Protein backbone atom coordinates (compact mmCIF):
# COMPACT_ATOMS: atom_id res chain seq x y z
CA UNK A 1 0.00 0.00 0.00
CA UNK A 2 1.42 3.37 -0.95
CA UNK A 3 2.26 5.95 1.69
CA UNK A 4 0.16 9.14 1.50
CA UNK A 5 1.12 12.38 3.24
CA UNK A 6 -0.84 14.09 6.00
CA UNK A 7 -2.73 17.34 5.46
CA UNK A 8 -2.42 19.98 8.21
CA UNK A 9 -4.69 23.02 8.17
CA UNK A 10 -5.70 25.80 10.56
CA UNK A 11 -8.66 27.37 12.25
CA UNK A 12 -8.42 30.56 14.26
CA UNK A 13 -9.62 34.11 14.25
CA UNK A 14 -7.70 36.81 12.41
CA UNK A 15 -4.50 37.43 14.37
CA UNK A 16 -4.56 34.08 16.21
CA UNK A 17 -1.17 33.13 14.79
CA UNK A 18 -2.09 30.73 11.98
CA UNK A 19 0.79 31.80 9.70
CA UNK A 20 3.38 31.66 12.49
CA UNK A 21 2.18 28.24 13.64
CA UNK A 22 2.03 26.92 10.06
CA UNK A 23 5.71 27.78 9.49
CA UNK A 24 6.70 26.03 12.73
CA UNK A 25 4.62 22.97 11.90
CA UNK A 26 5.98 22.71 8.34
CA UNK A 27 9.51 22.61 9.75
CA UNK A 28 8.58 20.07 12.45
CA UNK A 29 6.77 17.76 10.02
CA UNK A 30 9.17 18.28 7.09
CA UNK A 31 6.15 19.32 5.09
CA UNK A 32 5.49 21.47 2.05
CA UNK A 33 4.05 24.80 3.26
CA UNK A 34 1.46 26.52 1.09
CA UNK A 35 0.35 30.05 2.02
CA UNK A 36 -2.91 31.45 0.71
CA UNK A 37 -1.59 34.99 1.15
CA UNK A 38 1.41 34.18 -1.07
CA UNK A 39 -0.74 32.53 -3.75
CA UNK A 40 -3.23 35.39 -3.80
CA UNK A 41 -0.63 38.17 -3.85
CA UNK A 42 1.26 36.41 -6.66
CA UNK A 43 -1.78 35.61 -8.79
CA UNK A 44 -3.76 38.80 -8.12
CA UNK A 45 -1.24 41.58 -7.32
CA UNK A 46 -2.85 44.77 -6.03
CA UNK A 47 -6.35 43.41 -6.74
CA UNK A 48 -7.43 42.65 -3.17
CA UNK A 49 -8.63 45.89 -1.68
CA UNK A 50 -11.60 44.64 0.35
CA UNK A 51 -12.76 41.50 2.13
CA UNK A 52 -15.13 40.67 -0.76
CA UNK A 53 -12.16 40.74 -3.17
CA UNK A 54 -10.37 38.27 -0.92
CA UNK A 55 -13.42 35.96 -0.85
CA UNK A 56 -13.76 36.04 -4.65
CA UNK A 57 -10.10 35.31 -5.41
CA UNK A 58 -9.79 32.74 -2.63
CA UNK A 59 -12.63 30.73 -4.21
CA UNK A 60 -11.09 31.06 -7.68
CA UNK A 61 -7.80 29.39 -6.70
CA UNK A 62 -9.38 26.48 -4.79
CA UNK A 63 -9.66 23.99 -7.71
CA UNK A 64 -6.00 24.51 -8.66
CA UNK A 65 -4.82 24.37 -5.05
CA UNK A 66 -6.86 21.24 -4.34
CA UNK A 67 -5.35 19.29 -7.24
CA UNK A 68 -1.84 20.54 -6.40
CA UNK A 69 -2.15 19.52 -2.73
CA UNK A 70 -3.60 16.12 -3.61
CA UNK A 71 -0.67 15.49 -5.97
CA UNK A 72 1.80 16.32 -3.20
CA UNK A 73 -0.02 14.13 -0.67
CA UNK A 74 -0.14 11.26 -3.18
CA UNK A 75 3.66 11.08 -3.34
CA UNK A 76 3.83 10.67 0.45
CA UNK A 77 4.72 14.24 1.39
CA UNK A 78 3.01 16.09 4.24
CA UNK A 79 1.36 19.41 3.41
CA UNK A 80 0.78 22.34 5.76
CA UNK A 81 -1.80 24.76 4.40
CA UNK A 82 -1.73 28.29 5.75
CA UNK A 83 -5.27 28.79 4.46
CA UNK A 84 -8.07 29.59 6.93
CA UNK A 85 -10.50 26.82 7.83
CA UNK A 86 -12.69 29.20 9.79
CA UNK A 87 -16.14 28.03 8.74
CA UNK A 88 -17.75 24.60 8.50
CA UNK A 89 -17.88 25.00 4.71
CA UNK A 90 -14.14 25.70 4.51
CA UNK A 91 -13.31 22.80 6.84
CA UNK A 92 -15.41 20.42 4.74
CA UNK A 93 -13.38 21.47 1.69
CA UNK A 94 -10.13 20.54 3.47
CA UNK A 95 -11.59 17.29 4.80
CA UNK A 96 -12.87 16.26 1.35
CA UNK A 97 -9.50 17.15 -0.17
CA UNK A 98 -7.78 14.70 2.23
CA UNK A 99 -10.44 11.95 2.07
CA UNK A 100 -10.42 11.85 -1.76
CA UNK A 101 -6.76 10.70 -1.72
CA UNK A 102 -7.01 8.63 1.49
CA UNK A 103 -4.76 11.07 3.36
CA UNK A 104 -4.93 11.64 7.08
CA UNK A 105 -5.51 15.17 8.32
CA UNK A 106 -5.02 17.40 11.34
CA UNK A 107 -6.93 20.61 12.03
CA UNK A 108 -4.91 22.92 14.26
CA UNK A 109 -7.39 25.11 16.16
CA UNK A 110 -5.84 28.26 17.62
CA UNK A 111 -8.55 29.09 20.14
CA UNK A 112 -7.59 32.62 21.18
CA UNK A 113 -10.03 35.22 22.46
CA UNK A 114 -10.66 38.56 20.74
CA UNK A 115 -8.31 40.49 23.06
CA UNK A 116 -5.41 38.10 22.38
CA UNK A 117 -5.98 38.34 18.62
CA UNK A 118 -6.26 42.13 18.62
CA UNK A 119 -2.99 42.40 20.59
CA UNK A 120 -1.25 40.20 18.03
CA UNK A 121 -2.76 42.17 15.13
CA UNK A 122 -1.45 45.43 16.63
CA UNK A 123 2.00 43.87 16.96
CA UNK A 124 1.87 42.61 13.36
CA UNK A 125 0.89 46.10 12.14
CA UNK A 126 4.01 47.58 13.73
CA UNK A 127 6.26 44.78 12.40
CA UNK A 128 4.71 44.74 8.90
CA UNK A 129 3.56 48.29 8.03
CA UNK A 130 2.45 47.11 4.56
CA UNK A 131 -0.37 45.21 6.29
CA UNK A 132 -1.61 48.21 8.30
CA UNK A 133 -4.49 49.01 5.93
CA UNK A 134 -5.99 45.52 6.31
CA UNK A 135 -4.91 44.68 9.86
CA UNK A 136 -7.37 46.89 11.71
CA UNK A 137 -9.83 46.35 14.52
CA UNK A 138 -12.70 47.15 12.13
CA UNK A 139 -11.59 44.41 9.71
CA UNK A 140 -11.11 42.01 12.64
CA UNK A 141 -14.67 42.67 13.88
CA UNK A 142 -16.10 42.22 10.36
CA UNK A 143 -14.19 38.99 9.64
CA UNK A 144 -14.90 37.53 13.09
CA UNK A 145 -18.65 37.64 12.37
CA UNK A 146 -18.10 34.76 9.93
CA UNK A 147 -15.93 32.66 12.29
CA UNK A 148 -17.30 29.26 13.36
CA UNK A 149 -15.38 27.25 15.94
CA UNK A 150 -14.91 23.61 14.92
CA UNK A 151 -17.24 21.00 16.40
CA UNK A 152 -16.74 17.28 17.04
CA UNK A 153 -19.67 16.51 14.71
CA UNK A 154 -17.58 17.67 11.72
CA UNK A 155 -15.50 14.48 11.88
CA UNK A 156 -12.14 16.25 12.10
CA UNK A 157 -8.94 15.34 13.93
CA UNK A 158 -8.61 18.54 16.00
CA UNK A 159 -5.54 19.69 17.91
CA UNK A 160 -6.47 22.73 20.00
CA UNK A 161 -4.21 25.46 21.38
CA UNK A 162 -5.59 28.17 23.66
CA UNK A 163 -2.68 30.59 23.41
CA UNK A 164 -1.53 29.79 26.94
CA UNK A 165 0.92 27.12 25.76
Automatic annotation (TrEMBL):
ATP-binding is among the record's keywords:
yes
State the source organism's domain of life.
Answer: Bacteria
The family database entries (Pfam families) matched by this protein are listed as:
AAA_33
Task: Extract the GO molecular function terms from the UniProt entry.
Answer: ATP binding
Alphabetically sorted, this entry's keywords are:
ATP-binding, Nucleotide-binding
What's the protein name? ATP-binding protein
Q: What is the lineage of its organism?
A: Bacteria, Bacillati, Bacillota, Bacilli, Bacillales
Amino acid sequence: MKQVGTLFFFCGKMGAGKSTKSKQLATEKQAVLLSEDEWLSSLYPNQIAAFDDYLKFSEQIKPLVKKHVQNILNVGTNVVMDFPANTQKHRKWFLDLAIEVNASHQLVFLNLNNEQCLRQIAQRRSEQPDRAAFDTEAVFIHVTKFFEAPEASEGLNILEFSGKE
